[in-house]
Amino acid sequence: MDTRVAILAIVVEERDKAEELNHVLHAYGKYIIGRMGIPYEKRGISLISVAVDAPQDVISAMSGKIGNIEGVTAKAVYSKLQ
Q: Which InterPro entries is this protein grouped with (predicted)?
């Protein structure tokens, strides 16, 4: 199956949702290339980027599951190269 490279941009506005978010990321761990998290104390949020290499439907499912967590927003940006 063809895979795509993408970045998931995640904004966590409710820090108590971190465990639920990490559970979803762990479930998709085999597709994750790397991740970086930045706590932004001034605003009380965390910004996370997750690089993935996965089939497009897997990336969409992961982004959707993360975005369905209350207090968490997620968007996927895909590489144009296939």
A: Acetolactate_synth/TF_NikR_C, ACT-like_dom_sf, FeFe-hyd_TM1266
